[in-house]
Amino acid sequence: MSPKQERQREGGAAVAEAEPKKKLKRPPMYKVILHNDDFTPMEFVVLLLRQIFHKTESDATAIMLHAHTQGFAVAGVYAHEIAEEKVNRVSALAREAQFPLLCTMEPD
């Protein structure tokens, strides 16, 4: 019988023993990347950045221009599940609009 159980059986007060606090690890983060192509209109990319990534007009335009001139741009950095959902939403909207916009994710 444990000392705690013995104290309770004898009518003594049991003192709650504090568990050492465990530090939670931050989840790994992932970059969501938009890749430039020669067919997807710039306005459409800006629209996606505003709707899906909640960017301002000026931030969305800057990200789109970076992708246009450098070949790709990071739209945001998120936990895995959120990044995956954003990639899926961008891909679905691009496919629906019949644009070949490529959106990927990679570890940060």
Short description:
The chain is α+β, with helices and mostly antiparallel strands and 108 residues long. Helices cover 44% and strands 19% of the residues. The longest helix has 17 residues, at 80-96.
Derived from helix and strand composition plus strand pairing, the structural class reads alpha+beta
Give the SSE string.
Answer: HEHHEHE
Find the count of extended strands (DSSP E, 2+ residues). 3
Mean pLDDT: 90
- Please give the order of strands in the largest beta sheet: 2-1-3
Quaternary assembly:
single chain
Number of helices: 4
**Distance, first to last CA:** 51 Å
Relative helix content? 40-55%
What is the correct CATH architecture? Answer: 2-Layer Sandwich
| Structural domains: how many | 1
Within CATH, the superfamily carries the name: Ribosomal protein L7/L12, C-terminal domain/Adaptor protein ClpS
For this structure, the CATH topology is: Ribosomal Protein L30, Chain: A
Which descriptors would you attach to this protein?
three-stranded antiparallel beta sheet, 108 residues, single chain, Ribosomal Protein L30, Chain: A, 3 strands
Structural features, described:
By secondary structure, the chain is α+β, with helices and mostly antiparallel strands. It has one domain: Ribosomal protein L7/L12, C-terminal domain/Adaptor protein ClpS (Ribosomal Protein L30, Chain: A). 44% of the residues lie in helices and 19% in strands. It has 4 helices and 3 strands, in the order αβααβαβ. The protein has helices at 3-9, 42-51, 57-70, 80-96, and strands at 29-35, 72-79, 102-107. Strands 2-1-3 form a 3-stranded antiparallel sheet.
